[in-house]
Design brief:
186 residues; 65% helix
Length: 186
């Protein structure tokens, strides 16, 4: 009975569903914050709707660019986690680090929408996009990187994680430990 409870506890602790739920929630909040920056314009005396909409063009442009960026990041995250069967603390922290620049993106989009002609705003927005873009272009790895976030390396890391707990004094492994995870495409 104790072994079964320990095994269930282990399975819950290494199940990626909580990390996925957190990540999906973060992506949803990011998109919500992005759209909240778009305000319906007020028409001034003698101003046409076209002129008023032209005033919010920077907000719409920043929203569209950021939305596509977040959508691509979410799709990549979903694809990577489709390969993962078990997680460990290091993978949890890698996921949080992956989400960090995305969480700051609504600030950057708001900054560039309000100060569209300021080089500092454009530079800061670009710095928020750069880490993710660099990962897409290079496949997430470079020679000399200490931590690789490519689908192959994450799948390899997940494959090496023990699939069942090893109990003290026990040399047998549960049947679930013989499962193998499908290899990620190269």
């Amino acid at each position: 009975m104790d072994e079964e409870r320990i095994r269930q506890s282990y399975e819950r602790a290494h199940d990626p569903s909580r990390v996925l739920a957190l990540s999906d929630g973060v992506f949803a909040i990011i998109i919500t914050l992005l759209v909240l920056e778009i305000h319906v314009p007020d028409l001034a005396q003698g101003q046409s709707l076209r002129e008023a909409l032209e005033e919010i063009r920077p907000s719409l442009t920043a929203f569209l660019i950021s939305f596509v960026f977040v959508a691509i990041a979410w799709a990549g995250h979903r694809d990577i986690f489709s390969l993962i069967r078990r997680i460990d603390r290091a993978l949890v922290w890698l996921n949080i680090i992956y989400l960090l620049p995305l969480c700051i993106l609504p600030f950057g989009a708001s900054l560039i929408a309000r100060f569209e002609k300021e080089p500092v705003a454009l530079r800061n927005y670009g710095l928020l996009l750069l880490p993710r873009y660099r990962g897409w272009v290079s496949g997430g790895t470079r020679a000399g990187d200490r931590i690789s976030c490519s689908p192959r390396s994450i799948a390899d890391r997940a494959e090496r994680a023990p699939l069942s707990p090893r109990f003290p004094g026990s040399s047998t492994r549960s049947p679930s430990s013989s499962r193998t995870m499908p290899r990620a495409p190269a």
